[in-house]
Each structure stands twice: as C-alpha cells, then as structure tokens.
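Protein folding task:
====================
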Amino acid sequence: MHELNIDDRSVVPVEMAVTARTRSKGLLGRTGLEGALWLAPAKQVHTYRMQFAIDVAHVDRNGTVTHVVTMPPGKLGRWSWRTRGVIEAEAGAFETWGLKVGSRVEFTSRDDASV
C-alpha cells in the first residue's frame, strides 16, 4: 500500500492503478472508496457505470495538480495532454484534504521509499 502526500503532508492511503488491467477496472463496481486511487498513465477519465460521484485531479509529470473537478456518474472528463496521471477519490474528499490546483503530490510506500 502507498500513501498520498499533498504539499509534503501524508494524507491518505492510495491504491495504484498502473497496469492496463487495473486502470481499465478503476472504480467500476465499487460503491465507495476509502482513500484515493492513482491511475497512470491517464489523460482522461469517465464515470460511466459508476455508482457515486468522484473528485478527479489531473497531475503533470512534475507532480503538480493542473486541474480539479467533481464528476457525477455517467460523464466523460476532459482530456489533457499535460496530464501524466489522475487521482480519484469520493466527491468532497479533495476539499477535506486541501488538494487543489497548484498542490504538489507524491506517493510513498509504507516503507517510505518514494514512488
């Protein structure tokens, strides 16, 4: 398991979806999410067949959040050529965590090795 760090603060556990199989599954079939999900590489996400609204943050190759949006089920998100990957969480989580455009994010493993 990994931790999501926002502006040098360890915030929540994060699942890593970094293979074609895990990215294609994403949050499909779930009724909620504790923590966050990192999908990479990813330039765009959708919420078709999802059961709950999600917060989505586009992250560039430097780990800077470039766009944040809350998406209800059944929508196609914007495509961004600058995006390296996206962070997904239950709607409202980003506000609680202080994640916004300009935030710096990184992922660390439980043994503190940077990812």
